[in-house]
Design brief:
Layout (H helix, E strand, L loop, with lengths): L14 H7 L2 H4 L3 H17 L5 H20 L11 H13 L12 H36 L5 E6 L2 E7 H26 L1 E2 L15 H7 L4 E2 L3 H6 L2 H27 L7 E2 L18 H24 L13 H25 L1 E2 L1 H9 L5 H10 L4 H18 L8 H7 L7 H5 L1 H7 L8 H16 L2
Parallel strand pairs: 3-4
Antiparallel strand pairs: 1-2, 5-6
Helix pairs in contact: 3-4, 3-6, 3-8, 4-5, 6-7, 6-12, 6-19, 7-10, 7-19, 10-11, 10-12, 11-12, 14-15
Bound molecules: arginine (ARG).
The site of arginine has 10 residues, from α6.
Length: 459
C-alpha cells in the first residue's frame, strides 16, 4: 500500500524495510492516548479557526467511534500500518473521508509520539504508585502486628543488635515511601505538553498550545520546540526511579529467600507463593522472590539501553528514539507484576517468632547493652567495650550466654557488676530501652507506623 508519507518518494519500500521500520507491534498500546490527543487537537484547531468547526466535529465523532471500536474489539489493529498514529489517521480517513485529512494540520508525528508517550507513562506512573501504596499498606499491617517480635538485626550478615520483625518491615516501608515520592517528582516533569512543537520548529498556524494542554490534563508546556520533540528525560527519569524501586524489591526478596531457608527459618512463605521441585519432594522454593530479584536486572538493562540510545543523538527527532518504547513498557509491566507479587507474598507469609527469638538469644546481640551497663556504672565506653568483649569471648569458650553467666564470673572481669546486670542484658529490656526516634522499641516503631500512614495519606 502507498505510504501516507509518500511524497518526495513513491513510498515503495522493501518489505524488509517496512518490517524494520514498523513500531505498531508495540506502540499500539498507546491507542487511547493517541486518540484522546487527536480529539483535543481537532478541538484546538477548530477553536483557533485553523479548521472549520463542522469538520472538527466530524473528526471528533470519527475518533470517538474508533476508540469505542478498539475498546470493544470490533476494530482490530492493522499490523501492516507503520505505527499507531498512522493507523488511527488511516481508519479515520477511511471512515469520514476528506475531513480526516485535516487532522494532521499543525502537528507532526514527532510531537504526537512525545505527547502519547507522556500521557501513557503518566498513567503507568499512577498505577505503579497505587501498587506501591498497596505494598506499603501491607507492610504496615504486618509491622503493626509484630512490634514485639524480637529478632536479631544484622550488620555484615552477623547478628548485631536486637530489633523486631516490625521494625525491619518498616525499614522496607520507608524505602517504598521514598520510591513513591521519587515517582511523584518524575511525574511532575513528565506532565508537560509537547504538542505544538510540531516536527521541530513549531508552526506558522495560530495554534493555542495552552488550550490543547489544558484539555489533556497537562500542568504546563515544553518551552522549546526542539527540546519538546527530542527530550526523553521523562522516560529516563522514570526508568531510573523504577531501577531504584526494583533494587529495593530485590533486597527485600534476598532477605525473604534467606529467611525462608532452612538455615534461618524466620518465616514460612504461603504455599500460594512458592513452588516445589520436580525431583526433591521436600522442597518449597521461594521462586517468586527469586524472580523479583532476577527481573531487577532487566529493568536496569532497560535504563542502560535508553541512556545508550540517547547519548549521541543530535537535535531534534531521530528514528533511534523509536527504541524508547519497548524498554520502558517492559520496565513498567515488570515493576507492576513484581509489586503485585510482593504484596501477595508479604501479606500471606507466616512469621516464626520462636525461631527469631532463638536466634536473638544466641548471637550476643545484647553485648552493646552490657557495655552500656558498665558506662552507667561510671566506666568510659571504650573501656566498657573491651570488658564486654572479653566476657563474650569467655562465654563462647564456656558455652555460656550473658543472661545466665554467674555474677561471680562477671565480677572476675570488673567489680562494678551487680545483680542488676541481668536486667540490663535481658533481651526484652534491651529492646524496650531503644526508644530513640527511629529505633526498634515497640513505641518507636509505632511512631514510625503513624508517620508512614500519615505520609501515605498525603498525595
Ligand atoms: N513511530 C515513531 C516513534 O515511535 C513515531 C514518530 C515518527 N516520526 C518520524 N519522523 N518518522 O518514534
Amino acid at each position: 500500500m502507498a505510504k501516507m508519507w509518500a511524497g518526495r518518494t513513491a513510498g515503495a519500500t522493501d518489505q524488509l524495510a517496512d518490517d524494520f521500520n514498523s513500531s505498531i507491534g508495540f506502540d499500539s498500546r498507546m491507542y487511547r492516548e493517541d486518540i484522546t490527543g487527536s480529539i483535543a487537537h481537532a478541538e484546538m484547531l477548530a477553536a483557533t479557526g485553523i479548521i472549520d468547526a463542522a469538520e472538527a466535529a466530524q473528526i471528533v465523532e470519527g475518533l470517538e467511534g474508533i476508540l469505542r471500536d478498539l475498546d470493544s474489539g470490533e476494530l482490530a489493529i492493522d499490523p501492516t500500518c507503520e505505527d499507531i498514529h498512522m493507523f488511527v489517521e488511516q481508519v479515520l480517513t477511511q471512515r469520514i473521508g476528506e475531513a480526516g485529512k485535516r487532522l494532521h494540520t499543525a502537528r507532526s508525528r514527532n510531537d504526537q509520539v512525545a505527547l502519547d508517550l507522556r500521557m501513557y507513562l503518566r498513567g503507568e506512573t499512577d498505577s505503579i504508585q497505587e501498587k506501591l501504596q498497596a505494598l506499603a499498606e501491607t507492610l504496615i499491617v504486618r509491622a503493626e502486628a509484630n512490634t514485639e517480635t524480637i529478632m536479631p538485626g544484622y550488620t555484615h550478615l552477623q547478628r548485631a543488635q536486637p530489633v523486631t520483625f516490625g521494625h525491619h518491615l518498616m525499614a522496607w516501608c520507608m524505602m517504598l515511601l521514598r520510591d513513591r515520592d521519587r515517582l511523584s517528582d518524575a511525574r511532575r516533569r513528565m506532565n508537560l505538553s509537547p504538542i505544538g512543537c510540531c516536527a521541530l520548529a513549531g508552526t506558522t498556524y495560530p495554534v493555542d498550545r495552552q488550550l490543547e494542554a489544558d484539555k489533556l490534563g497537562f500542568d504546563g508546556l515544553c518551552m522549546n520546540s526542539m527540546d519538546g520533540v527530542s527530550d526523553r528525560d521523562f522516560c529516563l527519569e522514570l526508568l531510573g526511579d523504577l531501577a531504584i524501586l526494583m533494587m529495593h524489591l530485590s533486597r527485600f526478596s534476598e532477605e525473604i529467600i534467606l529467611w525462608s531457608s532452612w538455615e534461618f527459618r524466620f518465616i514460612e512463605l504461603s504455599d500460594a507463593f512458592t513452588t516445589g521441585s520436580s525431583i526433591m519432594p521436600q522442597k518449597k522454593n521461594s521462586d517468586m522472590a527469586e524472580l523479583v530479584r532476577g527481573k531487577t536486572g532487566r529493568v536496569y538493562g532497560n535504563l542502560m539501553a535508553l541512556l545508550a540510545t540517547m547519548k549521541s543523538l543530535p537535535l531534534a527527532y531521530n528514528k533511534d528514539m523509536q527504541e524508547d518504547k519497548e524498554g520502558i513498557f517492559d520496565a513498567c509491566d515488570t515493576v507492576k507484576s513484581c509489586l503485585d507479587i510482593m504484596t501477595g507474598m508479604l501479606g500471606t507469609l507466616t512469621v516464626r517468632a520462636d525461631t527469631m527469638r532463638q536466634a536473638a538469644q544466641t548471637g550476643f546481640i545484647n553485648a552493646t547493652d552490657l557495655a552500656d551497663y558498665l558506662v552507667g556504672k561510671g566506666l568510659p565506653f571504650r573501656s566498657a567495650y573491651k570488658i564486654a568483649g572479653q566476657i563474650v569471648a569467655h562465654c563462647m569458650e564456656n558455652g555460656q550466654i550473658l543472661e545466665t553467666l554467674p555474677l561471680a564470673e562477671y565480677r572476675h572481669f570488673s567489680p562494678l557488676f551487680d545483680e542488676d546486670v541481668y536486667a540490663a542484658v535481658d533481651l526484652d529490656a534491651c529492646l524496650r530501652k531503644r526508644t530513640s526516634l527511629g529505633g526498634p522499641s515497640p513505641q518507636s516503631v509505632k511512631a514510625q507506623i503513624d508517620w508512614a500512614k500519615d505520609t501515605l495519606r498525603k498525595k
